[in-house]
Task: structure prediction
Amino acid sequence: MTGQGHKAGAALAIAADVRAGRRSAVSVVTAVIGDIEARDTRFNSVTRILGPAAVAQAEEVDKAVAAGRDPGPLAGVPFGVKDLFDVRGEVTTAGSIVLRDNLPATRDAEVVERLRAAGAVPVATLNMDEFAYGFSTENAHTGTTRNPHDPARLAGGSSGGSAASVAAGLLPFTLGSDTNGSIRVPSSLCGVWGLKPTYGQMPLRGVYPFVASLDVVGPMADTVEDLRAVYGIMAGGLHMGEPDVGDVRVARLGGWFAENISPELAAGIDRVMAHLGHDRVIELPEVARARASAFLISAAEGGNLHLPRLRRRAMQYDPATRGRLMAGAMLPAATFVQAQRFRRWFRGHVHAALANADVLVAPTTVGVAPRIDQPSITVNGRTVSARANLGIFTQPISLAGLPVLAAPLAVDGLPQGIQLIGAPGGEAKLFAVAAELQRAGLAACRPIEAGYARKDS
Amino acid sequence: MSSAAHLSPSAPAMTGAGGHDDRKGPPVADMARIIGLSIPAACMPDVVANTALLHGYADLVSGFALPDDCEPAYEYTP
Result:
């Protein structure tokens, strides 16, 4: 990995410059658009550039600054959204041609609306697995997003465009969604910070659904500071009082979460635990069944959502998505209900574990990003599909609905990441630990070339 | 999550396109008909494979005894 992250937070630095009149919002936005046009051909993270609308909004930000009005805490900060967030004036495709004839959105998704009100400027929509059903961002309609740290490798998914555009240094922050790991997996493989908030916390109005029982939206960013700032605005102006990290009880997840991971990743987790001064290991029960339940609930709810369209125009779907959705639509009710009952059971045991720790540390994936031409990983000695199994450590946590902060370990070579898992509503403790790991140099996002930080615009 | 190779519990062998002749696995064509879904022939192998995958996971979850008062988590609060 090359390049440096921005300790102060790239988004916050841009906003400070725009608010102080050192840079204009228009110059920032036009430079970022130019950078995307010049460099994203290597990564394929962006699906649409929102040029005229973005420049028009940037002009309004500059007018506010010139008039002495408050342009907002994220004044002039460009950002991108996974292509399932409504952006007014644009058709929300959810990564598919199936929805391309829909009318353009008449208003922003609620979280986009909040960010725009804070002065941030949406400049691009970002690539994803079709309908968010995958861990690889290999899309038959829009192509494969490549990992900026090695374009021969997957970026992960389904919010792959959101992670890759931050890792490439094209955008300081982006929005993604996470049903089974779709923020955490690409954040890990691309080496960026990501947050899956507590299930039910973020408004989902204007977000194309996938699995109502599990869907969450959240930010991805190049620093903890930016992640915190964007999360607070997305959550409606939340100001967290973060605890002293020394008061946060941290434990490591064992069992399922200690198996199959690369030696480098295991060593990274060892360093994190040693630095934080905790050696407690906690094992959650029946993790394989928790993962299976998340898998089944996703298949059933996703399949049901798409059944009317699958009846009429199945062949428009990405072949990698179509078969899964059809199979899910046919899942017996008894299976779906059993999975939902298991979820209730698992919740009780997760809460019991969280009585002994505030933050649980676990790997996000088994190792580094798989090669695009060899999309497999090794699990229990078997070579299995990466697309299917990149989420083996994220899906069980999704079932419980817990908040998770995806932290990129500061490692030589390709990125690897960990999950900082909290109790429901425990995001502040996650940020306290993340900030300490960043401060200590144990976790870091290293964009390959932060074009938005140039001040010659 | 994929349509192809997977890490999953053992699933019944799937040999064909479903229907009455397929006695070794879920009757995919019949299941589709019940919900008004017509599966194009070109898609059938993938749907059969994914159905087998899901049934393997279903077997895993169904094999766990839950107390009768454990309700489904439809209105879930983490």
Helices of chain B lie at 28-34, 44-62.
